[in-house]
From TrEMBL, chains A, B, C, D:
UniProt similarity note: Belongs to the myo-inositol 1-phosphate synthase family.
Top-rank taxon, per record: Bacteria
EC identifiers of the protein: 5.5.1.4
Keyword hit for Repressor: no
Alphabetized UniProt keyword annotations: Isomerase
SUPFAM superfamilies, per database record: Glyceraldehyde-3-phosphate dehydrogenase-like, C-terminal domain, NAD(P)-binding Rossmann-fold domains
The keyword Isomerase is annotated on this UniProt entry: yes
Region (Disordered): 387-429
Species for this entry: Actinophytocola algeriensis
UniProt name for this protein: Myo-inositol-1-phosphate synthase
Length: 429, 429, 429, 429
């Protein structure tokens, strides 16, 4: 599956930078693919883009050179110094493909103008690199939860509001998701921000035949919770309280120090615990900004539970993770998997990717073992569909894919002002 | 499924006493069945003996009255005082059904004589209470691993040695397992002792058509390991070391303070970790006797792992459990499930019960989520087999079970000197 | 030193009830004085009231019988059942000496009326039991911090406001402290509430020649912080962050779940850390109400520090305490020590008792080892002053103490309407 | 106090290398003196050698260049890469001053011959650099405890045995201590090895007027124990068990993986706990070699204690330290302080330096706060003695020190074959 673009929103952040350095290092065989789920034996045979076939670009609102950001991450222990040296040239190339993102504070005019420019950035990238498809992945700063507005349920209302220079109807993440869809791109929401989760955007993705995945990467405390909680259930033990404290530094720590920004994260964590254990569990949860921890995140959880004859027991864990190290390979995995889904003609929310997310779309399955099974089965099905439609992952573009599949992927531009950009893009694929 | 006997080897120990108090409390509806896996919705419809239908007896080598033992456990926080008061009469009744176990230091004569007496104890119990079947469950003190002897692979050699007053060829747990089989009883090995795991005993169980389950109840650190290790695997993270320290008091703590006795426990724990994560993980493990902890067990594990680009991270957990509270309901669950297996005509090692054990028989599946699925599916199959053979769990003994099933369960007494006891027992069912 | 009264404000709370049961148990020699600092060898020879010589009464705003409260605490693991049984009679006697406390929601009229009644309660108690002195100890629910008011710095303004039925100028803890002083009693502030810490009350205590101690008993996380922080300082290690989470149930947990109430507690904790380590340490701190923990408090602290050449290291601790078990013996210790101070003619804030408090009065010494030395030296000085003035701790009241000492303790009633009560009380001593 | 030599035994090890890099970095003002106790305000005015005045040499039995060792430590996170670059030249200079140490496996001939050579190495170093004195500091691999031999109590017997080529009477650390004394040098024992702790060597140090300090640097778990244990005592809480597990990689981890080598370490830790809390505390303790942790050491301690009315509580801590980062600045501190002691004419064991050691010589004081006071008072006394005898820390060697003081420091060479070397050394000062 040659020519997959990865368009990172928040391309100069910790997660994005680590993902890019890692991709370059994997390509150069400097490191083993530790942390890359799609390199596990279960995924052999799944038609995924190779490391060599992924081209990276993106948006950000700051201008720190990627190389400088990578140096900071090396000092923080996330990237070995030898890898840094070996990937410098590659990093500069990606840096040159990062465009200015949308920022509500600096943008003037209607949001529709911003959309047009964002779409243009992506389609130009797709065209210049002759890419089959571009996966847009949101790894920008967390935003607060969105209120409920009529515009979020009606495309007509939304587009009218977007055209109104006096309004800023969409939060940046959702504006970006909208732009991605309008550019004909699958979208991955690695943050808890509203992103593509507005009903109107979901409908649009479905109608455009575009798959999407999300929300909020599961890399630490929540990962453990979704692993441990089913144990209590299976053993008929009654969890009475599950308290958590997260200490984190880095850009994410600074951002989440703001209770308004943190709200989304706390909500997505709480939803998960209730889905796993039911209501009635006392579950205080804190996120603290502790700058001296740098890129490290430390989570402490205290689980108090009741056993036979009312016996009281507890489990505590302390997780010390380098968040971006955990997240970065998943960004690459998601790019590959969503590319395969797109290639296989899937559209709408990809529930089978729940494995990656704190707040998975289109499913209530939070149990990690079950999510692992779902993912593996889904990927296995791709092997077989790839077997039946071999053109999907070969280098023989002259062979036509089955009509309904093309149809679905053809949809994006229909009846929308960016037809040209998309068309030229498709032409180049 | 009326009339199931539970014969506890180690009937005056912590686990046994807690199980008996709990059974009485459940029967009297004094407590909810927290910790009882077979009371989960997944087991609705499985033909299991009701709490009312389980009669308890057992062997032990000490004479502390069960009521006194229960008081000690109440002081240690395992049993609420109100439950103690309400179950005193029931406890005295069980106490009256406990017989002297086999102890190598006090026994004189050939081990075969001991076997005859142990079998007699069990069959008398079965007869007096008119029980359909008796499940023998080993919850006696842990023994060291057994060496490899020719007698452990040949029934002829074994029986010759048993008959020789100069030898003590079988460790107590295996002698007890042998006696259980000779009494026509399914056997559950809740300890890491040799028990039924000698090849000759396995063959005997199969040939007698008796099911068995084991080994070594999974209630703490190992439970967590089998829950957590698959997470690292699924996420392609590389575990480099997994260190553990177990602090425990109680009878088990005192017993395991002896490195020879502890060897079995440490071995069964190590086997599990290697099965989960492969070789190459540094895994120091300690069991310390800390008498002041009483019935509490505290385990600390430190897992160091490598992620993307060589990043080093770790997870620590502290588990504070009341071991016997965790074990006791599983004893009741196992009694029910093995009774159902026996009733359904299953024989030999029950791999589907791996969920309960550190060192499961007949399977290498250590992953807890997979074990949970195996258990549920197996239990569901019993529902259906029960549907087809309704006599299995009804009160209509006049209806004959299918021939092959009877055949299997008929086997025990064949060609062995205890035919009479068994026969009278069957007659009484 | 016969005849010391202990007047507990919050007499039906967990701390108070545990202290009372403990006092009765010590008196009956049912338990060893574990946790009682004044029973350590360093205090031999200090003229302290014996357990036999302490009579307990108090105020509370609820009516739960002390015996019932004690049963709840026994179920929660704080009091052995056998001790409960043996102290029931004693508990009923104390219960009969508990009077209705002041509650702003139920009181009508001027606060001065409430004061008069509270003073009357205490002086009657002192008179009826012929006590030399009564130590008033505040162990009632935590109150929020008080604002800064002109009335808190001027006795005239304060008393005018107290007389005004339209105002409630003093928070309950301070009203109680004021009443204690007016009754001629030393005061101990075991809570973080404003209590005696208003400047006007401090001045009053000094002018009345009454000693006082406080604030906020140091029994868990803060105790550890004041033990551990000096280690980092002595080793020239640079603490960068010290994060803490406290999980607690019980009455205190419920109370502190209210952020307004918790403010005082959080403030007193933060003050201590800054005093120990200077400014510039990131120190997020949480108190969570986790009802299922009952009387247990679990605190987790994560300390990140920098060493030689910028190396980053950390220390984590988890403290699992039964708060009232830790606090109760200190209540008895404080009663004894403040009685001795009063007897020795000391007045105003007792800085030497900083050992017991999170937010010690009249000193900035938070280091626990230094506080231990201060306490021991101070107590040793009492031995010697007792040697020179032997009448202070003997049963020969006819011998006059030195004039200036008496003068100081004589002060309370002067120029205040409760002269009679006090006089009769003194007469009875 | 110009011209102090630091002679490191084990000069190519982690602790030594970190100390050398650190000294160079401090001298170049590349880093702040975090972790250096002698830079704390309490030590202002104490006549200590400046960083500039310390010259380093040493012995080791391996030949890895110091610069290479430092790179490994940089990769392990102990030394910042920028510091490494800036100290490379200095490191090479120190490297050139490292001589072959004594190794029992490679040495042939009598141990006396080895001593002569080791003494020669040190005195040559002292002479070439015109040093006032050389402090010999043992940071070589841990050795097992020594048996009790008559030669360890009699100088005559010892020297006879040393002269016998058929014997290896002294373990390397003690041979090195003996050589240090014979070279007229104070000795610091930072390891738990026998070193100078044989009675005969103690006597020799005293008779030669040489001060010494030891044993076994206190940098992690034991440091915390000596900080925390006094808290339990002061609060009259009864510690029932104190369990510990240490996970460590690095050279020390590999060495201590051998139970024989670890014995010394475990013994010195156990002695400390008993001295702090008395006998009767269950205290299992483990040291595990976990290579993947590299230079990191993680200790977990679980303290179970009893409070008022028998209440059971616990404290757990996890310490994650970089051992060599913690040890290295103490090596520099000890060099300075022992130099000052020598300069002030002190001889024999320096009990006041207990602050630095797990198993302090000549004192049973293990409480860290008390040790801190002892150290500060002792250092303050040096300020005053320096005031009275200003020549001790000035550059005016023409002024004679008081006779007895000189006498003491004059002793080393007397009646021993290395008179010349020492004389030329003294001449150069
Ligand atoms: N393990 C993990 O790291 C993890 C897990 C789950 C979710 N996430 C989420 O991933 C996101 C990124 O985390 P990070 O640690 O890399 O944070 P970061 O602060 O290092 O990076 C965020 C980047 O987004 C950029 N940005 C902000 N607003 C933007 C906009 N409107 N358009 C384009 N770029 C914008 C910022 O300039 C910054 O470079 C966060 O939302 C975080 O919550 C991370
Ligand atoms: N969570 C758990 O508690 C758990 C988990 C896994 C395995 N186990 C195993 O269960 C067993 C029981 O644990 P426990 O805590 O109840 O121990 P315990 O010491 O309280 O009880 C063991 C009992 O076995 C009796 N016994 C010893 N030898 C006997 C013999 N030859 N015949 C009959 N009785 C004999 C003893 O007298 C004692 O009453 C142990 O082997 C333990 O390792 C327990
Ligand atoms: N280790 C400790 O337990 C500890 C340490 C430091 C401080 N404290 C403080 O001690 C106090 C008592 O703690 P607790 O756990 O016993 O709480 P609790 O809730 O069990 O008891 C408080 C009692 O005070 C009573 N009360 C409330 N308002 C009153 C009033 N106006 N007058 C008289 N009585 C009143 C309540 O009815 C209750 O009986 C709290 O303020 C707590 O913060 C406790
Ligand atoms: N925090 C700490 O690091 C700490 C604390 C207390 C004690 N210690 C002790 O300090 C010592 C050094 O620790 P490390 O981590 O640097 O160990 P290391 O293994 O890195 O270094 C020890 C060095 O000693 C050398 N050596 C071995 N035998 C020798 C001999 N006979 N003569 C000369 N050199 C010899 C080795 O070659 C090696 O270079 C150990 O004994 C350790 O127990 C260290
Ligand atoms: Na969902
Ligand atoms: Na103060």
């Amino acid at each position: 599956m040659a020519g997959t673009g990865l368009w990172l929103v928040g391309a100069r952040g910790s997660v994005a930078t680590t993902a890019v350095v890692g991709l370059l290092a994997l390509r150069a065989k400097l490191v083993e693919p530790v942390g890359c789920v799609t390199e596990r034996p279960e995924f052999a045979g799944v038609p995924l883009p190779a490391w060599e076939d992924i081209v990276v670009g993106g948006h950000d609102v700051v201008h720190t050179p990627l190389e400088k950001r990578a140096e900071q991450l090396a000092d923080a222990g996330l990237i070995p110094h030898r890898v840094l040296a070996a990937t410098a040239t590659g990093l500069r190339a990606v840096d040159a493909r990062i465009r200015d993102g949308y920022h509500p504070a600096t943008h003037t005019g209607a949001q529709a103008d911003a959309v047009a420019r964002l779409v243009e950035d992506i389609t130009t990238f797709r065209g210049e690199h002759g890419l089959d498809r571009v996966i847009v992945v949101n790894v920008s700063s967390t935003e607060p939860p969105a209120p409920s507005l009529p515009e979020y349920s009606s495309l007509d209302l939304l587009e009218a509001a977007l055209a109104d220079p006096a309004r800023s109807v969409l939060p940046p993440s959702s504006l970006m998701a909208y732009a991605a869809l309008r550019a004909g791109c699958p979208f991955v929401d690695f943050t808890p921000s509203p992103g593509l989760r507005l009903p109107v955007l979901h409908d649009l993705a479905v109608s455009l035949g575009l798959p999407y995945a999300g929300s909020d990467g599961k890399t630490g405390e929540t990962l453990l919770r979704t692993v441990l909680a089913p144990m209590f259930t299976a053993r008929a033990l009654r969890v009475r309280s599950w308290a958590g404290t997260n200490l984190l530094g880095g850009g994410d720590g600074a951002n989440l120090a703001d209770p308004v920004q943190a709200a989304g994260k706390l909500e997505s964590k709480a939803r998960g615990l209730a889905a796993l254990l039911g209501e009635g569990v006392t579950a205080p949860l804190h996120i603290d900004n502790v700058p001296d921890l740098g890129e490290q995140k430390t989570a402490w959880d205290h689980v108090s539970f009741e056993g036979f004859l009312g016996a009281r027991m507890n489990l505590q864990f302390t997780w010390t993770g380098l968040d971006s190290s955990l997240a970065a390979p998943l960004i690459l995995d998601l790019t590959r998997l969503v590319a395969a889904a797109h290639d296989a003609g899937q559209s709408g929310p990809l529930a089978s990717l729940a494995f990656f997310f704190k707040d998975p779309v289109a499913t209530d399955e939070h149990r990690f073992a079950q999510q692992t099974d779902m993912l593996t089965e889904w990927a296995q099905a791709l092997v077989h569909s790839a077997d039946s439609y071999p053109q999907a992952d070969t280098d023989t573009p002259e062979t036509s894919p089955p009509a309904d599949k093309m149809a679905r992927r053809d949809a994006p531009g229909n009846g929308w002002g960016l037809g040209n950009a998309r068309a030229s893009d498709e032409a180049s694929s």
